[in-house]
Amino acid sequence: MKILVPVKRVVDYNVKVRVKADQTGVDLANVKMSLNPFCEIAVEEAVRLKEAGIATEVVVVSIGQSGAQEQLRTALALGADRAILIETELNLDSLQVAKLLAKVVGTEQPQLVIIGKQAIDSDNNQTGQMLAALTGMGQGTFASKVVVADGKVAVTREIDGGLQTVSLKLPAVVSTDLRLNEPRYASLPNIMKAKKKPLDIVTADSFGVVLQSQVKTLKVAAPAVRQAGVMVDSVDALVAKLKQEAKVI
Amino acid sequence: MAILIIAEHNQQALKADTAKTVAAATKIGGDIHLLVAGFQCGAAAAEAATLAGVTKVLVADAACYQHQLAENVAALVVELGRDYSHILAAATTHGKNCLPRVAALLDVAQISDVIAVESADTFVRPIYAGNAIATVQSSDAIKVLTVRSSAFDAVANGNAAPIEAVAQATDAGLSVFVSEELTKSERPELTAAKIIISGGRGMQNGDNFKLLEGIADKLNAAIGASRAAVDAGFVPNDMQVGQTGKIVAPDLYIAVGISGAIQHLAGMKDSKVIVAINKDAEAPIFQVADYGLVADLFVALPELEAKL
Ligand SMILES: Cc1cc2nc3c(=O)[nH]c(=O)nc-3n(C[C@H](O)[C@H](O)[C@H](O)COP(=O)(O)OP(=O)(O)OC[C@H]3O[C@@H](n4cnc5c(N)ncnc54)[C@H](O)[C@@H]3O)c2cc1C
């Protein structure tokens, strides 16, 4: 069974981004970039399925600028076998990304797609569901447990009220939540080995997908800042403030 | 112009998020149709009809919608939705699951987590865990939006909108419901509570959450948690507040033994009043707190409970 894992290069999760003065976006100059945490979990899950003898090949694919090769190498060091970079300078919407991925699904014919539930930059939480729709596959979103058996995948999903388990016919799309696994650290030998693994680069234009988005960003502003608060020195003082000043209890 | 909203319900009753999504739709303007897709969901449909601003309730009552699986609900919404100008759902796990599937099948973008409506085509949404706020304009024929409930006040009840049955009932045959484990609690829901008290890694174990329960009982508060507390198995996943958990904005949020990582703040920094109790005076949570108490939680919590 082949597993396809789409991954994204994003601002590292420890970075607190700043909005540009001209409000056209956030300032990404000289900011640390990383593999999106949910994508890392997706790669880990695919590699574990391979180690368990369930999957035979793990292919990672990223859509973005040439710099995303770095994150693809990270995924290869974590245990993926082969990488594809679909290169574009454009800032694509989830729909365009899903359309490109649908083309990759068409050529690669994976039995399972494992994808992060959201990218921590756009916070969209859309691509997996859209890809499932465009390829006519079932979807198991926000997975905290994935069991592949008998041509099906059972996915335990984190939902608002607790947990839900669904069973999907393969091929299917699974999107990862935080508790699915704890990704390993790449060892030095594996980082070295990853440099020799195949990484194909193709241009996004070559897929015949309309890359223009219908959504225009008019402005990106900083959020409202909270007024500085006060420190209280005792529980008594806290209760008094909440009762008399804030009037919330 | 008419707006279709996917209602969220458990067959018997609507989730509070639906009335807040209707509030967002009211700001767009036009007829508002609420779709209740479920099985033996007459009671939820009847409640939907009472929401102010709703002009019609559509009910798809069939076994294939019992568990509201995304594949089946999306196919239904796509069939019904082509003549609408907007399709909305709450940005809950249900809305997030179904709506992108709808958008892709309609070949339009989705705008996630809308926190303000500027006009019928322009919306405001947080990105980068709320560290930036984007204003976006859509030229898609159908605008598909998920709505962040914490940013809108629920519409009132008292309406009596007509209820219409829709005949569709197609099982896409792609997924099957297996089981569900829902957390049962007598407390208010996190996203509906006026007061929330949350515990983090500083709580040390699940048993110690009892220290929060006594206080929650006195304040009629919901109990939340940081990701670290959930990952460590202290409490179940549905209690997580944050970028990837629940987004809340209660009147009072009390963070106990929580450091205040960006991802946690993303879920609670719009609360009206924030209290932080932490033994580390340098903890970033104090930067967003209205009232900060540097203390050992194992001393402060019993005292707080006694003094309320
Ligand atoms: C992609 C991604 C998504 C994430 N999403 C979320 C999310 O949705 N929600 C979320 O919460 N986190 C999320 N996180 C995790 C986040 O980065 C932090 O790791 C997490 O919030 C830390 O939880 P914590 O504050 O409980 O633990 P810690 O950071 O370990 O803080 C524990 C705090 O407890 C205090 N403490 C310890 N003992 C005591 C005591 N006896 N009395 C008083 N204080 C004490 C300490 O001083 C410390 O400040 C996410 C991370 C990533 C990478």
Structure report:
- The complex is a heterodimer of chains A (249) and B (308).
- Chain A is of the alpha/beta class and 249 residues long.
- Chain A is 27% helix and 32% strand.
- Chain A is built from six helices and 13 strands.
- Chain A has helices at residues 37-51, 69-78, 94-108, 127-135, 188-194, 235-245; strands at 2-7, 9-11, 33-35, 57-64, 82-87, 112-116, 138-149, 152-159, 162-169, 172-176, 199-203, 215-221, 230-232.
- A nine-stranded mixed β-sheet of chain A has the order 9-8-7-10-6-1-4-5-11, sandwiched between helices.
- In chain A, α2 packs across α5 and α3 (94-108) crosses α4.
- The longest helix of chain A has 15 residues, at 37-51.
- The N and C termini of chain A lie far apart (58 Å).
- The model of chain A has no long low-confidence stretch (mean pLDDT 97).
- Chain B is of the alpha/beta class.
- Helices cover 26% and strands 28% of the residues of chain B.
- Chain B is built from eight helices and 16 strands.
- Chain B has helices spanning 16-28, 42-49, 70-81, 93-105, 210-219, 227-231, 262-268, 297-307, and strands spanning 2-6, 31-38, 56-61, 86-90, 110-114, 116-119, 122-127, 132-138, 143-147, 163-165, 175-182, 195-199, 222-225, 252-256, 273-278, 291-294.
- In chain B, the strands form three sheets. In chain B, strands 5-9-4-1-2-3-10 form a seven-stranded parallel β-sheet, with helices on both faces. Chain B has a five-stranded parallel β-sheet with strand order 13-12-14-15-16. A three-stranded antiparallel β-sheet of chain B has the order 6-7-8.
- Chains A and B meet through α3, α4, β7, β8 and β9 of A and α3, α4, β5, β7 and β8 of B.
- β9 of chain A pairs antiparallel with β11 (175-182) of chain B, so a sheet runs across the interface.
- Flavin-adenine dinucleotide sits between chains B (200-202, 226-229, 240-245, 257-259, 261, 263-264, 267, 278-280, 283, 296-298) and A (13, 37, 120, 178).
